[in-house]
Sequence to fold (500 residues):
Amino acid sequence: MIEPTKASDPKQPKPRKPIYLTVKEDLIRRVLSGEWRPGDLVPSEIALAEEYSVSVGTARKAVEKLVQDNVVVRQRGRGTTIATYRGGKAAKPYKFLNFYSEQDERTERATYLDFAEGTATEFDAQQLGIAIGSPVSRVTRLRSASGRPAIIEHIVVRGDFCPNAAERFARLRPSSIASFFDRQYNLLIVRVDEKVYAALADQEDREHLGSAEGEPVLEVIRSAYDLGGFVIEYRLIHARQGVYYTNTTR
Amino acid sequence: MIEPTKASDPKQPKPRKPIYLTVKEDLIRRVLSGEWRPGDLVPSEIALAEEYSVSVGTARKAVEKLVQDNVVVRQRGRGTTIATYRGGKAAKPYKFLNFYSEQDERTERATYLDFAEGTATEFDAQQLGIAIGSPVSRVTRLRSASGRPAIIEHIVVRGDFCPNAAERFARLRPSSIASFFDRQYNLLIVRVDEKVYAALADQEDREHLGSAEGEPVLEVIRSAYDLGGFVIEYRLIHARQGVYYTNTTR
DNA sequence: AAGTGGTCTAGACCACCAT
DNA sequence: TGGTGGTCTAGACCACTTA
Fold:
């Protein structure tokens, strides 16, 4: 049943909240509570309508909003499932990969270079929204395109949400980070922010990307948010000259 | 009335097209035909439902799709209008600006540097999807952020769609390009593709952006599509070091 | 006061998927 | 074959804008 929105609450009249939004928020609450885990089948629209005492159309609209937010995936004939990046036949939401390309080629599987547990620097703390000195895991990896090194990623992961991430990264060497968080920690990445800067190749770029001294590179700071709005990991990425970042705005 | 989808067409059974999509496409056709121009009020949902002999809910869904595509803007109590970038109280769709910033400051009004009519080079032709030698207009402008030059744009416009664009640019010096195409040519920009590369500052960047020799810059190739799917203009943009490109993926 | 979009209801039929 | 989501209908009330 829907919470009656606190009849005692005085600030009600103006921004009357649609029922479908209330239902959507309760469904998110149930995902966050662990009642449903990634890959689980959500009750059908008819079942949800009965459970929340709303019409099917309203339950439907709530589910549509969840789809927009990358929380669930609908499949005709099968049902609605909590989004998951795990393999198998079903239920992958939007992909955040595919961001870098070169000569219109997608980047290939990553090679892992380094793993470390550590504590948050001031910059880490700022990016992750945690305190300086909090535990973090650090991972470095390299991705290629057309058989040539293309981008190098320094990934920093929140230690409180993802204990022993470096060790698990080292053991599993996942090709998809979103999949890794999904399987290992039941965390669902639903949003990614990126900022792209111009920079010059540093020592590491020269070593691993084959950049020359004085050559320009793309520097990307990328933050990944989970369903709860927390930054789970951020990455400092360098892409060698020739590799590009692409985006479409509608 | 809706065209009955060619009853004689044999390829019907599998991909049955939803009615609301057919309605949406016909509404787009009417916009492209000039029946409605940017800023015009579209018939109400009830009127559309009657006109197309569908239920209000179906007409509504068609209009919702048009909103998603940046073609129309809905305002409760007022009605639905064709999207427009013209000033006034109403009807602005998504903004494609806001792409560049610095120290979290938006870029300011543009300064125009150069205007020219010309013919398409091979690169122009490729970007605009026209023949080499076709007429194009070229405009160069500079945008600042925090009082300092930040990005320089070379804009190339299709001459067949936008005759005398350089001359009009010179006369009007519009702050918004989308607004310019809207007012001058009744063209509605609904989608923008961008590719971001790393490059080194060239002579022009040193002159106008204050870049030093060997300093990195962002190079962006940006194509603007109108409602009909044509590339109306593309830009070659350089942003000096420190200015960044930002994007959120949901 | 009239008309609009925003929300909601309570049904219905269909295409698709798993069993 | 039964259940699912995808589509569609024909109403209804409300909040908001405009005249």
In short: DSSP finds seven helices and twelve strands in chain B. Residues 16, 18-20, 54-58, 61, 75-79 of chain B lie near DNA strand D (CB under 10 Å from a C1'). Residues 19-32 of chain B form the longest helix (14 residues).
